Amino acid sequence: MAINAPKVPKPSDPQLVRRSQYSAREAWRMFEIIAEFVTATERLPGIQPAVAVFGSARITPEHPYYAVAEDIGRRLSDAGFSVISGGGPGIMEAVNKGAFAGPSSSVGLNIQLPHEQGGNAFQDMSHTFRHFFARKVMFVKHSCAFVMMPGGFGTLDELMEVLTLVQTGKIRRVPIILVNTAFWAGLLDWIRGQLIRDRMIGVADPALMQVIDDPQQVVDAIFDHYHSRGFEPSPAEREAELAL
Q: What is the overall mean pLDDT for the chain?
């Protein structure tokens, strides 16, 4: 009588070989990830205090958003902050351009994409990542404030990432500033309405963000936040960041 046992693939089975090869590549990729973190960690510690500015890569220099981002970048640099962007075109270029003209460092943390994103020309320091999550960790680790200019999915991703980390206590409370009231109004109405109404977030959570249109007021809001405590993380906050 035949036994209907599961078929065990032979060592020469092409499917098994492909799986084995893929597993080996995945294991070695861990070393690539470690190397990416080590390299970035060695290069970036001297840029603090730093402010990260996010926004659309699709904005042209003629767009009003570009001028505002450039103004913010210059004011942050003049105030003593290194300015970190994603290193690409559009608003990222604008904020780097403003910072590059000032006395503090203009930093670009670029990312390798299938359709290559070229780095802009206004960077004192540029570092390119292969993995989005490694890049995100470095943005969070080195920034004492986050400025969100108008942008698309990437900007929204960064905004929600930072909000989640602050809300859950993974990082300290930092200024999260949305620039351009008209652009962010619909999202904020939905957060205050839908999310709070359905108890998806706490009633105080929208206060993690502030909306500011004036470039100088963006800088002032960051200083106001740190007025009584200084920019340096406490030992407990540094320890918490190790669990990012």
A: 88
Residues in the chain: 244
Question: In Å, how far from its chain's centre is CA 218?
Answer: 18
Q: Is 132 a residue whose pLDDT tops 70?
A: yes
- Of residues 29, 36, 46, 126, the one with CA closest to residue 82: 46
Q: Taking Cα atoms as reference points, which of 150, 93, 95 lies closest to residue 117?
A: 93
Residue 46, both tokens: 């001297």
CATH for the stretch 51-228: 3.40.50.450
Could you tell me the residue ranges of all domains in the chain?
51-228
pLDDT confidence band for 19 (50 / 70 / 90)? low
C-alpha distances out from residue 28 to 2, 15, 16, 21, 135, Å:
43, 20, 19, 11, 20
Strand order in the sheet with 143-148: 125-129, 106-111, 82-85, 50-54, 143-148, 176-179, 209-212
Confidence of residue 181 (pLDDT cuts 50, 70, 90): very high
Strand-pair category, 125-129 with 143-148: unpaired
pTM: 0.85
pLDDT, tens only, 183-215: 999 999 999 999 999 999 999 999 999 999 999
Q: CB 181: neighbour CB atoms within 10 A? A: 11
